[in-house]
């Protein structure tokens, strides 16, 4: 089963989620380094600060409005929402596009490919979930 975050991220493929779940601090350090290069974390943070066990376990998130809304509606991701796509998830898609450009600049091809599958297909993922829900 694929683990999809509230915003459409594919958590099951996420190096951050995988390193956290496996307890592998060496891989978490690699993820931290990547997150710093991409600009998602500052150098003054620690590798432990990138640990993630999924949407339902975090206190806050880059897309808190979406996370809180989905939790309040009792849905596992925005694709299940009757109001999809709303303005909040459209903002997420737009923000994600800006991250993709930065990733292309600073990531190796294999790093970019991995991040692409995790983060940059969220609209297509949520569209597919929403389409299945309507059938």
Overall domain count: 1
Please bin the fraction of helical residues. Answer: 55-70%
- Radius of gyration computed on alpha carbons: 15 Å
Q: What is the chain-wise order of helices and strands? A: HHHHHH
Helix segment count? 6
If you average the pLDDT, what whole number results? 89
Describe the largest sheet: none
Q: Tell me, briefly, the overall form.
A: globular
Structure description:
The protein is built from 6 helices and no strands. With 135 residues, the protein is an all-alpha fold. The chain has one domain. The longest helix has 20 residues.
Would you kindly provide a brief summary of this structure?
The protein has 135 residues and is mostly helical. Helix content is 56%, strand content 0%. Helix 1 (15-22) runs antiparallel to helix 2 (25-38) and helix 4 runs antiparallel to helix 5 (109-119).
Task: Give the tags.
single chain, mainly alpha, 6 helices, 135 residues
Topology:
Layout: H1 15-22, H2 25-38, H3 64-73, H4 87-106, H5 109-119, H6 122-134
């Amino acid at each position: 089963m694929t683990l999809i975050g509230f915003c459409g991220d594919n958590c099951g493929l996420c190096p951050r989620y995988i390193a956290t779940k496996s307890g592998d601090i060496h891989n978490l350090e690699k993820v931290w380094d990547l997150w710093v290069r991409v600009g998602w974390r500052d150098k003054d943070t620690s590798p432990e600060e990138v640990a993630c066990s999924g949407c339902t376990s975090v206190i806050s998130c880059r897309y808190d409005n979406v996370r809180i809304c989905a939790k309040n509606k009792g849905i596992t991701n925005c694709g299940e929402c009757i109001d999809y796509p709303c303005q909040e998830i459209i903002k997420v898609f737009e923000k994600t596009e800006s991250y993709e450009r930065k990733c292309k600049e600073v990531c190796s091809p294999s790093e970019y490919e991995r991040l692409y599958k995790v983060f940059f297909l969220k609209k297509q993922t949520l569209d597919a979930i929403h389409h299945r829900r309507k059938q």
